[in-house]
Amino acid sequence: MAELDSPQQHPKLYKPTGDLVILANDGEATTAFRVHTVILAEHSPVFAGMLALPVVDDDAMEKYDDVPLVRLADSAQDLAALLEVFYTPAHPQFKASDRDFAEHVYPLAMIAAKYQVDSLCRAVAEHLKSQWPTTLEQLLKDTRTVPSHLPRGRMNLAFPEPAAAIRLATDLNVPEILPMAYYVLATYPFDKATRTQPWNFRRPRWHLLHEDECLRAYRGKLELMEENLNMELSYQLDDGDCNHMAPGNYIPGSLPCGRVVEGIKANRTHADFSGISAATKSFARLDPLGSAAQAYRDGVVRSLCFACKAKMKAKFEVKVKELWQGLPDIFSLPQAFASSDS
């Protein structure tokens, strides 16, 4: 048997009492992990099955440091991350504020899925779902939907980076987040130039998505543009029942609520976008779901009278529900990926 090249022993995961050595590569470097087979078998049915295979010839078995040796095709970095979980009960600790969680955890999640480490896969899936609203109730309660410090149409700044979330959710089978993740992705600019440039605060990681997924996001964006234009039709209010105009309530110089709403509509359509087409404006402020959710929560604007605010809240309650339920169809998501919220 040919002698092994000297691998580098992992500083933390080369256990002196281990009864198995695993070799894994990162490029040209080889790392040796000395581990306990009972630990591997406890956490992974795949490892348990491998270790249960009968040994045909013990003398012919490859060994390192006097214990059996196996070689795995996984990268040393990914394998180290998995073994660290096996040997550290409280590991890993996921941060709720990590906007790049999906990209950071993806290699660990994939090797965990490969070796059927179900507890780790579930932990990753639950944390991913905690970062995205998966029901209409969560959407309406989520203060990130339209944070007070962000203008309408900038929902993409309030949520984690969506492309990596879509990649992780698709490959780990977490369909619940996909409608909202695709929606947020569609609010970003979409052109080929951004796909080849490094990610920054406002650019998604398009390179992580397959061509059909990019096409799904773009076609959904076109449908959302239509929804954005239709949103303007919701900004209508009859002044007939306006409390501000009722006898005894009228204040000279005050406007009826219908006029206030018309002013809001005009501002949404024209402010800061003079001289460009309606379609371009719709793309520039592409956030009909966020706008409808905020209008539902606030009754469009707090200065409306009670009766008019109630009317607008009812109108946008229907609108936001229609938009939410329509997301799977807008993005042509497979039935398994459709939102179950009604």
Automatic annotation (TrEMBL):
Domain BTB span(s) in chain numbering: 18-88
Database matches in SMART domains: BTB
SUPFAM superfamilies: POZ domain (SSF54695)
Residue intervals passing through the bilayer: none
Xref: InterPro entries: BTB/POZ_dom, SKP1/BTB/POZ_sf
Organism of origin: Phanerochaete sordida
Name of the protein in question: BTB domain-containing protein
CDD domains for this protein: BTB_POZ_ZBTB_KLHL-like (cd18186)
Pfam family, one: BTB
